[in-house]
Amino acid sequence: MRPKIFNRRTAALLAALPLAAAAWLATSPSPASATGASTPAAVIDYLHQISGNHVISGVHNKEPLSNPAQYTAQAHSITGKYPGLWGGELGFTTADIANRQTLVNQAKTEWANGSLVALTWHMCKPNVSTCDFNGGINGASLSGSDWSQLITNGSSLNSAYKAKLDTAVPYFQQLKDAGVPVLFRPLHEMNESWAWWGGRSGADGSARLFQITHDYLVSKGLSNIVWVWNVKDTDQNGGSGGVSGFYPGDNYVDVASLDPWVHSWPGSDWYNAMLNVAHGKPVSLAEVGTVPTAAQLASQPQWAWFMIWSEYLTSANSTSGLQATFNASRVLSQGQFTIPTGTTPPTTPPTSPPGGSRTGVVTGVGGKCVDVASAGTANGTAVQLYDCNGSAAQSWTVGGDGTVRALGKCLDVTGQGTANGTKLQLWDCNGSGAQQWTAETDGHLRNPQSGRYLDAPGGNTANGTRLQIWDRNTNPWQTWHLPT
Fewer CB within 10 A of the terminal residue: the chain, N end or C end? Predict the structure, then answer.
């Protein structure tokens, strides 16, 4: 629904797979039949699990909303598989808005059949109820004074914008009641100025409107939304180096996504920019024209899904190309994965009883204990694996405040780092995010600030193996047994 330019790069960028991710490539998630009621947390957790190993196939279904599965059906007729992600549009014309119930009914069906549900919204200008794409969305820029009013609570434009959000609330509520988490991508491609909401960098720019959107819909009780932030691989506004100026913040984003329309496949600059801005959150290709090849997906293994944009399914792709990708071992389509039901929260605070603490050993791969090197108490002392010996260096208190402590100090991510491979150390307890840990029910120990997990490098069980943080995976060296 907007101008898109194809300058396809023919050479795939062959980057090395992270060690911890590569070791899981041979293990496929269990097949699915249908998907029951679930939660955003369960979806996000699953995206973490597959990142680096697998990628979910997706196809968008643009207007008319009266036929909300036409491109999904095309994909099935070509590949023999239904995409693992169904994309839909909330609409902007009078006719399409009148068919939102048809859209929601289809979303429920797709989820029940085992696909993720993603919604995009080409929203008309705040003070216009319905519109044509050109003039109402594309090329409908706001003046500086109008923008200032829009992001000012209680102003006429701000109220009009929230009233427009209100029109979608009943449909999100239906999906919530049905147990359907929604990958919602509002204000997409916000680093480019083709739409009225885009092209404004900085704290009072496009990112601020994303924050307002998030807070307003959350205030309506819509706890079923997975918040997908989106940019385009444009050369505007600093290109890949400027994306951080549009990022709303970790408290507002669950997935960071890219639309590679300028180059068709992201260069390493864009791939790395998305990983850096995401701070350990999943990343995805929210819109593509030409389907990625298996080699391309292997070269950039962290993409959690790709979504082919509607008519580009046939106009920009060959039958053989689509079939090759949909049948690639890395690619998951409907029936090839299961989202947890979410009946049990995927994470629990490491406390028992509530507000209390537990003290004892923390054991991991090979039955080794988490150990403070040489029982040192100096800031920066390495935290490692070692034979269990009952010493004070292996006595950890898992506290109700989210810390894990030994020898009067806290388990700490060095330098408050967020990158894979950042080492762990002992440090004075200071309340920082580098010292916060969340125990998950399957034995993973997560550092929320980085979005990464306590990890023994490559599963090494030698005494003195220094521990690190790494992307979530199902290798046994990310399973930890806490004090009971």
Answer: C
Are 401 and 352 in a shared domain?
A: yes
C-alpha 241, offset from chain centre = 20
- My answer on whether 231 and 278 are in the same domain is yes
- What single-letter DSSP state applies at residue 138? B
Give yes or no: residues 202 and 63 share one domain. yes
Is residue 394 situated within a structural domain? yes
Look at residue 77 and give its three-state secondary structure: helix
Query: Are residue 275 and residue 370 in the same domain, yes or no?
Result: no
E-strand ranges in 68-208 read: 85-89, 116-120, 182-185
User: How many other C-beta atoms can be found within 10 angstroms of the C-beta atom of residue 89?
Assistant: 22
Which of helix, strand or coil describes residue 480? coil
Cβ atoms within 10 Å, residue 475: 19
Partners of 469 in the beta sheet? 454
The whole-angstrom separation of Cα 277 and Cα 79 is 34
User: Smallest Cα–Cα separation from 382: which of 484, 259, 465?
Assistant: 465
Global pTM value: 0.68
Phi, psi of 106 (to 5 degrees): -65, -40
85-129 pLDDT per residue, tens: 999 999 999 999 999 999 999 999 999 999 999 999 999 999 898
DSSP string, 434-455: GG--EEETTS-EEETTTTEEEE
Please, what is the end-to-end C-alpha distance for the chain in angstroms?
Answer: 55
* pLDDT single digits (tens) 401-418: 789 999 989 999 998 888
Q: Do residue 209 and residue 284 come from a single domain?
A: yes
Range of the domain at 323: 19-332
Cα–Cα nearest to 189, from 428, 2, 429, 463: 2
Q: Fill in the amino acid letter for 368.
A: K
